[in-house]
Write the structure tokens for this entry.
Amino acid sequence: MIKNALNGMLGSLDPHSSYLDEKDFTDMQVQTRGEFGGLGIEVSMEEGVVKVVSPIDDTPAFRAGVLAGDYITHLDGTPIIGMTLNEAVDKMRGKVGTPIELTIRRIDVQEPIKLTLTRDIIKIQSVKSEIFDDSIGYIRITTFNQNTESGVKKAIDEISAKLGDKLVGYVLDMRNNPGGLLDQAIATADLFLDKGEIVSTRGRHEEDTKRDNATPGDATNGLPIVVLINSGSASASEIVSGALQDHHRAILLGTKSFGKGSVQTIIPLPGHGAMRLTTARYYTPSGRSIQAKGIEPDIVVEQAKVEALKSNGFDRMTEADLPGALDKDKQAPKPKTETTATAPKPEETAKTPEDKEKAKAEELKKRVEADYQLSRALDLVRGVNLYEQRQK
């Protein structure tokens, strides 16, 4: 009764204040270290149901197709209405390997969606990196745990060492990043800034105001940066995005972020877990409040699928196709479109290092083709670099 009373009291203040018993407090500490059990969804409570802030990459929820903005209404057929957020999260967690059915309502989908997920140990690799087109560094930040800043620094160093002078810029992907540790967000933003304010937190009292500033040095040496955000980008990811945008250090591309601009303080209660209480708001360097407003990208790009238009034959005509065209005889013959497939010889099926590189390049190409926002971000990095080179 006392636990429920505490949860009711704190939960009525705002969506992010709550009471954590000893188990919940331990789980939270484990989560910020980068490993925890569950389905892999960052959630909040909205109008009595659980709202998905974002699915975490490479987790049961992500693989099952759970999307940012989904509303979870039932767990194993039991309505969520009447539960607290902690109770709903406890029900979603459980023994690894056991199934749970989620009933989801999705905007623009009339019928409820039922998904069966299998609980698993969620190990979060907060930073992943790739190289696109042998010239652009891609850094994906999935969450801000205690390893994020060092992971980003390592990714920048590895990309720079591998590409050298061929490196033209970076894409920083923070889509569906639910946030995490404030100090890691500040340290990550500091990697790309060499001066100025990163974020300020302002509480009820004047003495609660705190400003965090960048230290000298830009780990990327001033190369162009495009930041990808969407409605699943929340809290710490909005702090980094807002700081880079206000200092004109990066171009933000995608859709408006989630809008969680409040600060939660964890107050341990000896022998009784802890209390999570909203105590302040985040403000970007220009003084913008993130709360319930989010970060507007500089270039709005909705996720889309691009398909080539079917050719009618006339759109591919050139001057050389016209009768009597000058220098027509000097044109190289057009390659034949029909090819005959031959089965590879047994010795050709062995994977050489070159084959693996080609396979990886093909995989990255398919990822770009399937991800319209990423494709636009890569084009933008190339364009900014080309413009800067011509200005020199």
In short: DSSP finds nine helices and 19 strands in the chain. The mean pLDDT is 88.
